[in-house]
Specification:
The complex is a heterodimer of chains A (324) and B (289).
Chain A (H helix, E strand, L loop, with lengths): L2 H23 L7 H20 L3 H8 L7 H6 L3 E4 L12 E8 L2 E8 L5 H7 L6 H16 L4 E7 L6 H5 L2 H14 L4 E10 H5 L6 E5 L3 E3 L3 H9 L5 H8 L3 H7 L4 E3 L10 H19 L4 H13 L4 E3 L8
Chain B lengths: L2 H7 L13 E3 L6 E3 H6 L15 H8 L5 E3 L3 E3 L11 H12 L5 E8 L2 E8 L10 H17 L3 E7 L7 H20 L4 E10 H4 L8 E5 L4 E2 L3 H8 L10 H7 L4 E3 L1 H28 L1
Parallel strand pairs in B: 6-7, 7-8, 8-9, 8-10, 9-11
Antiparallel strand pairs in B: 1-2, 3-5, 5-6
Helix pairs in contact in B: 5-6
The site of zinc ion (ZN) has 8 residues of chain B, from loops.
GO molecular function (chain B): acetyl-CoA carboxylase activity; ATP binding; transferase activity; zinc ion binding
Subcellular location (chain B): Cytoplasm
Main location (chain B): cytoplasm
Chain lengths: 324, 289
């Protein structure tokens, strides 16, 4: 069940009434613009109310919204993009796209997970769930960025890695593990933006970076809420409950220090103004790249190590004794 | 700490089992086994060689020559998400601690195997299914960093259901943290070995388990990224029994070898021997340079 549909009902009804009034207003002698303005103000108020107080489970649906900009949407906004294909071994995974790109004054390598916006696209893109070949392609392009000495920008948008027979036979674990190693030590500035859903190790494989940015209504989780509910309670239908537990929203993750910056979305979500969202995200990427370029490589690598080194929450029961 | 004292402080805290629990049925061949006999045989069935899941303390005892210097044992779990479902996360942790005699899902420290000093981490499935949360990540990271500093090889025995859900994204980030430490260990020239034991899946499988220079697995261990049930639900058909077993992974070229438990110690000794030979060559080259 999509909980957003229920909440958007009132909004859609207002939208329809405003539209009706507008078309009725045209060519009429009675001026109804005052009434339209009042409805529009009510609409904006409701919009702020609905989208200012989304539950985690509702945010999951915002993140998965079919009209939410995907990696290719952001790539289309770049000044140039030259796509590069394949893992050089077995196949070209359409669930991960990447290539050389230009953004503002920066030449970069961009890589992202690509889900579909409808069923046909989703079947072609395997719902954005990458196979080992996709991670090997990502790893290859990351190393290409290092080879060309260009910053790396990644876009995260996946429920998780592909859970299929062939992916296991082709060593999904090794592919993700190897990608993590490459990203952890890549000798160029790296920046990651979580643009939709970030799910488990499949998302993390592209998400170790000097700076991790996250769109306001994106989610990023140790497992998809469905997966978490299945693992803990043997019941994927309790995903809403799992979402409430998992602390998967951008503001939660900013609080844990896992995300460095939250990028605000247009009122009502990225899908209500995709063009403005793309512009805002690309602007932030440009600005953060400017910042990262001001650090020396050794400083960058040390800071990246320390950033991940600190993550976690434990207590040290022997700390007062000075024991290890 | 001398091994006997260390064991008293650790494994022996486990409650003495009652008489009935002294007998266990082999899930593979059905043979009823007397637990002390089973333990004496490295938790391997005498009739069919089924490998039972091993406790971390027993594993360390079976491998290490003399004493074991445990590190990071004071690092204990917190409750960063204030997680409660049927029970609270701290209640779950306390229940597993009482059952398993462990205070977390990994033990880390230094010792020798066949005279070769090394950093050793051993995960234990009996505590929270060996899942990796902040403590597993922190203890292992300290171990790997200490191995790098002391210039010693590092070996990790994995046994894990993956990332620990009750710590959310902080659990996932332990994959990144341990990876960064592994990269530094390897860059320092020290070898990294893993032994994958039953089961090794999810976030552990997709991080340090498969980042090792040499990856061994115990006979018949279940190893994979996605869980068997998840795959079966996705493809809507039953998977063959051998799918995701150590032997299956060996055929597919994912791991270096499958080892029976009694052969593990001698195998590790030989591998550590090759590693030392390489280190000695490097030192000689440095001296003559
Ligand atoms: Zn048996």
């Amino acid at each position: 069940m999509n909980p957003l549909l229920e909440r958007e009902k009132g909004l859609l009804e207002l939208e329809r009434r405003i539209e009706d009034l507008r078309s009725a207003n045209e060519g009429q002698r009675i001026d109804m613009s005052a009434e339209i303005a009042s409805l529009e103000s009510k609409y904006r108020q409701l919009l702020a109310e609905v989208f200012g107080s989304l539950s985690p489970w509702e945010k999951v649906h915002m993140a998965r919204h079919p009209r939410r900009p995907t990696t290719l949407g952001y790539i289309a906004g770049l000044d140039a993009f030259d796509e590069l294909h394949g893992d050089r071994m077995f196949r070209d995974d359409p669930a991960i796209v990447g290539g050389f790109a230009r953004l503002g004054g920066h030449s970069i390598v961009a890589i992202g997970q690509q889900r579909g916006r409808d069923m046909k696209e989703n079947l072609a893109r395997n719902f954005g769930m990458s196979t080992p070949e996709g991670y090997r392609k990502g790893e290859r392009l990351a190393l290409l960025a290092q080879r060309f000495n260009l910053p790396l920008v990644t876009f995260v948008d996946t429920k998780g890695a592909d859970p299929g027979i062939l992916s296991e036979e082709h060593a999904q674990s090794e592919a993700i593990a190897a990608s993590l190693e490459v990203f952890a030590a890549l000798r160029v500035p790296t920046l990651c933006v979580v643009i939709g859903e970030g799910g488990s190790g499949g998302a993390l494989a592209l998400a170790i970076a000097d700076r991790v940015l996250m769109l306001e209504h994106s989610v990023y989780s140790v497992a998809s809420p469905e997966g978490c509910a299945a693992i803990l309670w043997g019941d994927a239908s309790k995903a809403d409950e799992a979402a409430a537990h998992l602390k998967l929203t951008a503001s939660d993750l900013r609080g844990f220090g896992i995300v460095d910056e939250v990028i605000p979305e247009p009122l009502g979500g990225a899908h209500r103004d995709a063009a403005a969202t793309v512009t805002r995200v690309l602007d932030r990427i440009g600005a953060v790249l400017d910042l990262l370029e001001s650090f020396s490589l050794p400083d960058l690598l040390n800071a990246r190590y320390e950033k991940y080194r600190r993550l976690g929450s434990w207590r040290d029961s022997l700390a007062t004794d000075g024991a290890p | 700490m001398p091994m006997a004292d260390w064991l008293r402080g650790g494994r022996n805290r486990e409650k003495v089992r009652d008489d009935a629990a002294q007998w266990v049925k082999c899930p593979s061949c059905g043979e009823v086994l007397y637990r002390p006999d089973l333990s004496a045989n490295l938790d391997v069935c005498v009739r069919c060689s089924h490998h039972f899941r091993m406790h971390a303390h027993d594993r360390i005892l079976s491998l290490i020559d003399g004493d074991f210097e445990e590190i990071a044992r004071g690092i204990l779990p917190a409750d960063p998400l204030s997680w409660t479902d049927k029970k609270s996360y701290p209640q779950k942790l306390a229940a597993d601690a009482a059952k398993s005699g462990m205070d977390e899902a990994v033990l880390c420290g230094f010792g020798s195997i066949g005279g070769y000093e090394l950093a050793l981490g051993v995960m234990d499935f009996h505590f929270r299914g060996g899942t990796m949360g902040s403590v597993v990540g922190e203890r292992l990271t300290r171990l790997i960093e200490a191995a790098t500093e002391r210039g010693l090889p590092c070996a990790i025995f994995t046994a894990s259901g993956g990332a620990r859900m009750e710590e959310g994204m902080l659990a996932l980030m332990q994959m990144a943290k341990t990876t960064a430490a592994v990269v530094r260990l390897k860059a320092s020239g020290q070898p990294f070995l893993t032994v994958l034991t039953d089961p090794t899946t999810g976030g552990v499988s997709a991080s340090f388990a498969f980042q090792a220079d040499v990856i061994l697995a115990e006979r018949n261990a279940m190893i994979g990224f996605a869980g068997r049930r998840v795959i079966e639900q996705t493809i809507r058909q039953r998977l063959p029994d051998r799918f995701q077993t150590a032997e299956f992974l060996l055929e597919r070229g994912h791991i270096d070898g499958v080892v029976d438990r009694p052969n593990l110690k001698p195998t590790l000794e030989r591998l550590l021997g090759y590693a030392r030979a390489g280190m000695q060559r490097r030192k000689r080259a440095e001296l003559s340079a």
